[in-house]
Specification:
This protein is α+β, with helices and mostly antiparallel strands and 141 residues long. Helices cover 64% and strands 12% of the residues. This is MarR family winged helix-turn-helix transcriptional regulator.
Amino acid sequence: MTGRPDLAALLQPLVKALIAAEVRVLEGRGISMWAYVVLSALDDGPVRTQAALAEAIGADKTRIITTLDRLQEAGLISREPDPGDRRVRLLAITAAGRRARREAQAEIQAGEDRLLALLPPDDREAFLRAAGTLADITALI
């Protein structure tokens, strides 16, 4: 073998371990990965329609209905009819949903910080900067 490994082969074990750690945190809080994705999307932006949310998170709009139902039943989101088109439901994160999402994220990132602390500070900063840049340009691939 010559040169460096493929990026996917290099990053796959790390991504797999990070996802497993994230799932453990979320399951401990009674939140599915899709629920966390929905809460994150709603916490990061304005009220969305179910169709716009599905598009934003890369999910089929019919696939997230059950997740939305569970989040609403738990009081983590609200779904209200759009006054301009009663066939459309407007989504919003509730204060409880925002708190649940932010607490889960803090726990997830605390675990990530323990991993990142194994790197020298300069490498840690460079890794986070490069990962952010690559994440921003993935649409170009």
